[in-house]
Design goal:
There is one protein chain. The chain is of the alpha+beta class and 459 residues long. The strands form 4 sheets. Strands 8, 9, 10, 11, 13, 15 and 18 form a 7-stranded antiparallel β-sheet that branches. The protein has 6 helices and 18 strands. The N terminus is likely disordered.
Length: 459
């Protein structure tokens, strides 16, 4: 009997230890990621963004190339050219919420809480000459500069000295942008490539049962995206090339996808190519934009299963563990603009409004939180079932508990297995959301201990 007692005690102790260790998998408490989405306490004002729009107004700039980069200089957010007018150079950029400082040329600047940076550059003597350039005619002229002592001590001749030092750089297309910074050194109509997101592709992830709540796995449609904006030496846009990589569709619905720009560009000023339109879901203008819209709208595809076929096992493709993996499909949308007309500030790409079209029903759109529907959306669906939108107060695509139907992640992210809520895969997603984006803004990055990999799809 005594032996039996000790045996039972040993078995119970081992079971208890196993239970404890199961709750501490990978050295992290499961309570961090076991909370249900519906139980989260989300601030009503939370926008679910992993990036923020930051406005820049920069004065006292020298002529030449302007660069805005990460604090350590490793990531370039913007590259443009300043010709001396207007007095303030203005640009709006989408930067990750993890970025609190930037370099403007070589000057470190803190992003203010109001997300508008009004900055006056310090004297030219504090700038790195290698980051600037000036046009010279004829090209490649070499002029000897006065002494460095004069350059530093006499502000009146400083700019002239700087220009002479820059004259030795090559500029074969004579657009004023030296080869070191010219992405198109032999094309005077083009100079710079700027990317959004700047650090590589971002991810858009949707639930597709709106206005009903979904399972919050955010894999009904997963699309990676990146825009490349090509500008000339006057910062006017030549073209924008948008790359979309369709990675997953955990659904049986034949969903479409598009995006809207924040302004209406006249049809004669923009031409769009590259869309996959195979059904009678949408109507296009002759220039490739969608007809009947108050703002320029581009449909990328009207049925995801035209791009990648449904699999016999699981739902859709690339969300069910063990099912056949389908190679992601890539679409490139090219938007060509009237030459020398629009700046990046005019187009407002950082405010682009992506949306899903549910099952070929054009009026059923799913947008990011608080992004407005397009002119063709069925407004009667707002406020029905689980949707708690209020058109009059510009509250869109939120539940009563402020949960979203779509999220935009600044980097390409690993999405959940089918029916597994995103909170199960990302240990700090819930803390980020409940803090209104203040705590753990890097929840999606693959840092040690941030993920429960068993909940995330892999092939």
């Amino acid at each position: 009997m005594q032996g039996s007692f000790f045996y039972r005690s040993f078995v119970f102790a081992m079971f208890f230890i196993m239970l404890l260790t199961s709750c501490q998998k990978d050295g992290h408490n499961s309570a961090i990621f076991s909370v249900k989405m519906e139980a989260l306490k989300i601030p009503a004002s939370f926008d679910w963004k992993t990036a923020r729009e930051v406005g820049f107004s920069i004065t006292n700039l020298p002529f030449g190339v302007l660069r805005i980069s990460s604090a350590d200089g490793s990531q370039l957010f913007y590259k443009g050219y300043y010709i001396g007018t207007p007095s303030a150079f203005q640009i709006s950029l989408s930067l990750p919420t993890t970025v609190n400082e930037v370099l403007i040329n070589d000057q470190l600047v803190t992003i203010p809480a109001n997300k508008f940076l009004n900055y006056t550059m310090s004297g030219l003597k504090d700038l790195d000459v290698s980051h600037t350039s000036m046009p010279f005619m004829p090209a490649n002229v070499t002029i000897e500069a006065p002494s460095a002592v004069i350059a530093i001590s006499n502000n009146k001749v400083l700019k002239d000295v700087w220009m002479k030092l820059s004259a030795t750089d090559t500029d074969p297309d004579a657009d004023g942008v030296i080869d070191k910074y010219d992405d198109y050194p032999n094309d005077p109509t083009r100079a710079f490539n700027n990317y959004f997101p700047a650090e590589g592709a971002g991810s858009l992830a949707f639930e597709d049962v709106w206005p009903s709540k979904g399972d919050y796995d955010f894999n009904d449609l997963v699309v990676d995206y990146q825009f490349k904006t090509v500008t000339n030496n006057r910062n006017r846009i030549s073209e924008i090339v948008a790359t979309f990589i369709v990675r997953a569709a955990g659904t049986s619905l034949e969903n479409g996808f598009g995006f809207q720009l924040p302004m209406l560009i006249p049809d004669a000023d923009i031409n769009v190519m590259g869309s996959s339109i195979n059904h009678s879901v949408v109507s296009l203008n002759s220039n490739g934009t969608e007809a009947g819209q108050a703002r320029t709208t581009i449909i990328v595809f009207d049925d995801v299963f035209d791009l990648m076929k449904k699999q016999s096992m699981g739902v859709g493709f690339n969300t069910t563990p063990g099912a056949q993996y389908v190679t992601p499909d890539t679409l490139r949308i090219t938007m060509k603009f009237r030459p020398d007309t629009y700046s990046a500030l005019d187009i407002g790409l950082e405010k682009f409004n992506p949306f899903l079209i549910i099952n070929k029903s054009r009026g059923r759109e799913v947008h990011l939180t608080d992004y407005p529907p397009t002119s063709l959306a069925d407004l009667s669906l707002f406020g029905t079932e689980d949707d708690n939108s209020n058109v009059q107060s510009t509250r869109y695509y939120k539940t009563k508990g402020n949960l979203p139907w779509a999220i935009n992640i600044y980097k390409s992210y690993s999405y959940s297995n089918e029916t597994v809520p995103i909170v199960n895969g990302y240990r700090y997603f819930s803390t980020w959301a409940q803090s209104g984006g203040i705590t753990n803004p890097d929840w999606y990055i693959n840092n040690a201990g941030y993920r429960n990999t068993e909940s995330l799809y892999k092939h």
